[in-house]
Design goal:
The protein has 351 residues and is of the alpha/beta class. The protein contains 11 helices and 13 strands. It folds into 2 domains: 5-202, Peroxisomal Thiolase, Chain A, domain 1, CATH 3.40.47; 211-350, Thiolase/Chalcone synthase (Peroxisomal Thiolase, Chain A, domain 1, 3-Layer(aba) Sandwich). The mean pLDDT is 91.
Length: 351
């Protein structure tokens, strides 16, 4: 069977950036008509979210303006095109690949709506081939970055000597709801940021980079209520059930151990954990679970601190950090993310 390698990961950030302490006055003003205790609680959520700063496609003044879904989605479409083009172009240039050498492009985003999808615009903007296979992944939330890797891997397994790109561009900022005072909206506002990432993969014999040893999805039964968006007249309204960490804990052994065993390894052999930083509580939950196995997810925590949760793109930022490390031949890594459905996506790597 063909070997599939992850050959490059790049990231791209929007132009606007704010540290959390500079966001707090805007939050305080936004909640000015709310109960004082509620306001203090929300400010503490922001302060304790383990996110030091975040980037956005809009200036913070625009984020807190009462604009329509149509207006915010128009900004999303405009900026996603820019970020997607830049991150893919940077990846191709840094790897020395011609745009016409790509055989498969997967674009990932759930934080806005655009038809045609981003991949169609990238074909035109960067001069990709007219026969390139394209796949937009639009409704898998935070898990979708790893979903894209799984789809790319399956394509490349069936097609030797080919190249694929996964481009994830997200703007949770565009989904922020000014009139939603639910705890789900407060928590998501405290942890989310915007960003883009690109992963280049190859089934060429001469390809370098960590090899994909296996990939699988794990779908939780009767858990569709845990995470997602409701479509309202004001836009995409966050669904975020507080039971998510506990649900992950309950399923964790079934998610990790059988998957590794099916691919001839075990958690004892996995040195590098490339985990999606869904938020402080989920990071703490997974850290405790892996900690009992003598592992750490320090890189995951650091990405959350520096950028916040950028939905599908975030785990790819963690992956980039590992590709920049000097990792010994034969060492293994586990990519893991969770998203709406509820589902867990896993990819096993070997350097």
């Amino acid at each position: 069977m063909n070997e599939i390698h992850i050959v490059k990961v790049t990231k791209e950030l929007p132009q606007y950036c704010r540290v959390t302490k500079d966001i707090l006055p805007f939050v305080d003003r936004w909640l000015g008509d709310q109960d004082e205790r509620f306001r203090r609680k929300v400010l503490k959520i922001f302060e304790g979210a383990a996110v030091d700063k975040r980037y956005g496609i809009m200036n913070i003044d625009e984020v807190f303006e009462a604009t329509s879904f149509e207006q915010k989605n128009a900004i999303y479409v405009r900026e996603v095109k820019k970020l997607g083009r830049a991150v893919l172009q940077n990846a191709l240039v840094s790897r020395g690949w011609e745009a016409t050498s790509l055989d498969y492009i997967i674009t990932v985003s759930c934080t806005g709506i655009m038809i045609p999808s981003l991949d169609a615009f990238l074909i035109n903007d960067l001069g990709l081939r007219q026969d390139i296979v394209r796949l937009p992944v639009t409704e898998m939330g935070c898990a979708a970055g790893v979903s894209g890797l799984i789809y790319a891997s399956n394509f490349l397994k069936s097609n030797p000597g080919k190249r694929a790109a996964v481009v994830a561009v997200e703007s949770p900022t565009a989904t922020f709801q000014l009139n939603d005072f639910s705890m789900a909206n407060m928590v998501s506002a405290a942890i989310f940021g915007d960003g883009a990432a690109c992963v280049l993969l190859s089934s060429e014999k001469e390809a370098t980079g960590p090899k994909i040893m296996g990939e699988e999805m794990y779908h939780f039964k009767d858990a569709t209520h845990l995470m997602g968006f409701d479509m309202t007249n004001d836009g995409l309204k966050m669904i975020l059930d507080p039971d998510v960490p506990e649900t992950i804990t309950r399923h964790f052994p079934a998610i990790v151990h059988p998957f590794l065993a099916r691919h001839g390894t075990s958690i004892e052999n996995v040195t590098h954990l490339i985990f999606h930083p869904g938020g402080k509580k989920i990071v703490q939950t997974v850290e405790e679970l892996f900690g009992t196995m003598g592992k750490n997810i320090d890189d995951t925590r650091e990405i959350l601190r520096l950028y916040g949760n950028m939905s599908s793109a975030t785990v790819l930022y963690v992956l980039e950090r590992f590709l920049e490390k000097d990792i010994g031949s034969g060492e293994q890594g586990l990519i893991l993310s969770f998203g709406p459905g509820f589902s867990a996506q896993r990819v096993l790597l070997q350097w």
